[in-house]
Amino acid sequence: MKITIVAATKMELQPLLDVYQAKEANFIGLYTNNDESLHFLVTGMGMMQTAAHLMWYANRYERDFYFDIGVAGAFNRTIQLCEVLKITSETYGDFGVENDDMFEDFFEMGFLEKSTSVFEYGLVKPIEHIISKNINLKHASSITVNKVHGNEKTITQIVQKYNADIENMEGLAFYYVMHLMQKPSIEIRSISNYVEKRNKGNWKLKDAIENLNTEMIEILNGIN
């Protein structure tokens, strides 16, 4: 089984790199320990870098299963800070136009089809695999954004529109590429903060990364 773990930043998977003694390989953003069964790929932040880098990588390396891991912000206050979640759906969170005080996405405007080979009712879901089915984490829905929300008015608007549990900056691109490549995958996120008026003093970034990597080590041990 050849597995690749994808993250936007090296910081988010540094503990895994340390445990598996992975070093930079002869491909931009790729880290390995010379064991072809496990790759770590740092794509860079955001949808564009994730999609481009991941597609480039996936066309070069034949892999069986992909993880996307990282931190995220939670809209849903029943989710605990530093809790690790399995993301079961992604959609755009800020892809559209402003109409005065209103925001209309391109699905509503008719520019995007809600049901295609990738989108199901406007959502992209992972291609199932026995690995992802056996991961016993709380399920969550997510939106992918280019701009992290920090304004109370727009946060309320987005919550009402999408009713998503969390937001992040790469998940939709990850699942979209996986569908294009027809590869099974799962996105795992740890909650570093609540989506609110920006206050980094409330964030638990270090602890969220630690919990995320601890969970991933357990998942990988279970697979092996």
Features:
224 residues; alpha/beta; two-stranded antiparallel ribbon; globular
Give an overview in words.
By secondary structure, the protein is α/β, with parallel strands linked by helices. Helices cover 31% and strands 28% of the residues. The chain is built from 6 helices and 11 strands. It has a 5-stranded mixed barrel. A two-stranded antiparallel sheet has the order 7-8. α1 (10-19) packs across α6 and α2 (47-60) runs parallel beside α5. The mean pLDDT is 94.
Gyration radius, rounded: 17 Å
How much of the residues is beta strand, in percent? 25-35%
Q: Uncertain runs with pLDDT below 50, 5 residues or more? A: none
Question: What is the mean pLDDT?
Answer: 94
N-to-C order of helices and strands: EHEEEHEEEEHEHEHEH
Question: What strand order characterises the main sheet?
Answer: 5-10-9-6-11
Question: Count of helical segments?
Answer: 6
Basic shape: globular
How would you summarize the topology of this molecule?
Layout: E1 3-7, H1 10-19, E2 23-24, E3 30-32, E4 38-42, H2 47-60, E5 65-74, E6 84-92, E7 96-99, E8 102-105, H3 130-133, E9 138-144, H4 152-162, E10 166-168, H5 171-181, E11 185-194, H6 205-223
Parallel strand pairs: 1-4, 1-5, 5-11, 6-9, 9-10
Antiparallel strand pairs: 2-3, 3-4, 5-10, 6-11, 7-8
Helix pairs in contact: 1-6, 2-5
Summarize the structure.
The protein is an alpha/beta fold and 224 residues long.
